[in-house]
């Protein structure tokens, strides 16, 4: 497989639009966030143009994450023949599954080129607003046999949301080798015990680390077992663990406070935690021992590990890991390290907010 790292919206949006405009047979797009604005207008126009050309265009949006983007917004696309469905809409018979959202951010074109990562479709990923810089994020362009796994992941939610099964060469062509990266798609759906494939993937790789673990995540809320595994890696195998999380530019103050509440045992064991300062950081990556990389939609928190529908790409390739680590080092240089002593001196007001965040967590 071939995996390309696309850093920030000005790069990955252009790559996605260029690929969509070149589509010949099918375009499938799934998103948690699809917010009205300049970015989504450009995507709707590109998708509608392809639909008018006879390309089959299918779109899945989460009914909560994209709830402010009404069906009327897609009039041009629908009239051109494109189809738009909402995942797990708000209906009385869905009430028991209300908290289970599709968090996948995924595009597959002609069954041969895929995009996977954590960025949705909104202007916040492309341009600044007031004093807030555009969000820091990363997407990944994928070619090779692993694209079939991305297409299957989309097809799973498409049949659930629309009732239709996607088949045929337009969706599942023979994918030729495109590079030298060994990779696999790990799709994840909610489970009663919260032992999802996403959780198994992350925790298994952490448990196998021998040298270093580098994590970038917008929401860092590891539960006891994940923290225990990280502490064990440090103490028993002398693994270096470095984590980058949002700083004061976080889009969720209580989540950030609640995350900080969990730093203690990790910092005490020797983990390094850094808060990114320039903007909201929304990148979701993990590298292990400069060899394994995990990229996709999963946050390092209870929602992604137990409640959300997620998709990740795990690959074993030193060049891919090195490219991701280039961005990690650049982000690290723009981050502030939190020490154990600083953490211990948190104010009473901050601790109250942490506890409020903890109470909200328990309701998820």
Entry summary:
By secondary structure, the protein is of the alpha+beta class. The protein has helices at 9-21, 38-52, 75-79, 147-162, 197-208, 224-237, 253-260, 263-269, 302-307, 318-333, 340-344, 348-362; strands at 2-7, 26-31, 56-62, 83-87, 105-109, 113-117, 138-143, 182-188, 212-216, 240-246, 272-276, 285-288, 292-296, 310-316, 335-338.
Write the layout of secondary structure elements.
Layout: E1 2-7, H1 9-21, E2 26-31, H2 38-52, E3 56-62, H3 75-79, E4 83-87, E5 105-109, E6 113-117, E7 138-143, H4 147-162, E8 182-188, H5 197-208, E9 212-216, H6 224-237, E10 240-246, H7 253-260, H8 263-269, E11 272-276, E12 285-288, E13 292-296, H9 302-307, E14 310-316, H10 318-333, E15 335-338, H11 340-344, H12 348-362
Helix pairs in contact: 1-2, 5-6, 7-12
- What percentage of the residues does DSSP assign to strands (E)? 15-25%
Total E-strand runs:
15
Model regions low in confidence, pLDDT < 50 over at least 5 residues: none
- Number of alpha- plus pi-helical segments: 12
Strand order of the largest sheet: 8-14-13-12-9-10-11-15
Global structural class:
alpha+beta
**Biggest beta sheet attributes:** 8 strands, mixed
Q: What is the average of the pLDDT values?
A: 90
> What overall form do the CA principal axes indicate?
globular
Whole-angstrom Rg: 20 Å
Order of helices and strands: EHEHEHEEEEHEHEHEHHEEEHEHEHH
> Helical content, roughly?
25-40%
């Amino acid at each position: 497989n071939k995996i390309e790292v696309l850093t920030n919206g000005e790069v990955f949006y252009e790559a996605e639009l260029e690929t969509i405009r070149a589509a010949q047979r099918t375009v499938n797009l799934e998103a948690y966030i699809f917010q009205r604005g300049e970015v989504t207008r450009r995507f709707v126009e590109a998708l509608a143009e392809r639909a008018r050309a006879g390309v089959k265009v299918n779109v899945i949006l989460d009914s909560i994450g994209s709830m402010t983007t009404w069906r009327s917004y897609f009039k041009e696309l629908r009239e051109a023949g494109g189809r738009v469905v909402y995942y797990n809409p708000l209906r009385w018979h869905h009430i028991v599954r209300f908290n289970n959202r599709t968090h996948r951010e995924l595009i597959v074109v002609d069954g041969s080129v895929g995009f996977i990562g954590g960025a949705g479709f909104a202007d916040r990923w492309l341009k600044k607003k007031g004093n807030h810089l555009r969000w820091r994020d990363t997407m990944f362009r994928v070619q090779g046999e692993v694209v079939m796994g991305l297409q299957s992941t989309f097809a799973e939610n498409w049949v659930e949301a629309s009732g239709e099964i996607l088949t045929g060469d337009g969706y599942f062509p023979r994918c030729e080798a495109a590079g030298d990266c060994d990779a696999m798609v790990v799709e994840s759906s909610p489970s009663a015990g919260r032992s999802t494939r996403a959780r198994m993937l992350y925790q298994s790789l952490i448990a196998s680390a021998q040298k270093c673990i580098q994590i970038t995540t917008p929401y860092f809320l590891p539960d006891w077992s994940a923290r225990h595994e990280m502490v064990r890696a440090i103490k028993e195998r002398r693994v270096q663990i470095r984590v980058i999380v949002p700083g004061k530019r976080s889009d969720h103050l209580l989540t950030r406070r609640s995350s900080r509440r969990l730093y203690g045992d990790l910092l005490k064991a020797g983990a390094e935690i850094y808060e990114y300062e320039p903007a909201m950081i929304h990148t979701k990556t993990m590298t292990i021992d400069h060899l394994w990389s995990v990229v996709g939609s999963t946050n390092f928190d209870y929602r992604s590990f137990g409640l959300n529908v997620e998709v990740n790409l795990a690959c074993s390739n030193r060049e891919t890991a090195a490219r991701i680590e280039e961005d990690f080092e650049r982000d690290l240089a723009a981050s502030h390290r939190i020490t154990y002593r600083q953490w211990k001196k948190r104010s009473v007001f901050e601790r109250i907010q942490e506890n409020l965040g903890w109470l909200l967590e328990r309701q998820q």
